[in-house]
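Incident log, structure service

09:12 report received: a user says their structure output differs between two submissions of the same chain.
09:20 pulled the input from the user's history:
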Amino acid sequence: AGLAALAVIALASSVLSPARAAGGPQHEDEDGQPLAQEVEVLQLLADYHAALAYGGDKLVAMASLWAEDSRLTLTALNNTKTSYVGKDAVLGFFENGPYYHNNWVSLAPEWKTTVTAHGDRAEATTECIATDPVANVIKGVIQVNATAVRHHGKWLFISMDNFNEPGI
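09:34 re-ran on a clean worker, output below:
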């Protein structure tokens, strides 16, 4: 639990650092993107990792992050793809997946996270380091490529493609 709390605090503090949080629609980063949109999508990613980190009791939190017509595609090391289409199918994966059944924690290094926002659509990449805090071992490293849309003022995932990094 201590590792999970530390991970969420570290991610939240990096996502909402004063330099980033100060951005508004009139403030742009070095690439000309509105900082407010970038911060909002970074918060969506932080909420995603938080929903993973605390197991099955966070399925409601996970549900709040996905659009009804969303899609999750997982690519295994042998390039086999499995897709979950629709919010219910995506949530079914998480409910029955390894994070919730093993109480793993998902760590996300800030320096491996990028967001490109344009209007009400954004692309994001990050890395999830699946960690078992009880055994104190890394269970896997997952590359995440996601697309989010702003729907009624709230950012939601519409697609996410995850693949395992070899070597773990």
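09:41 both user submissions now match this output. Likely a transient worker issue. Closing.
09:42 reviewer note: The two ends are 23 Å apart (CA to CA). The longest helix spans residues 35-53.
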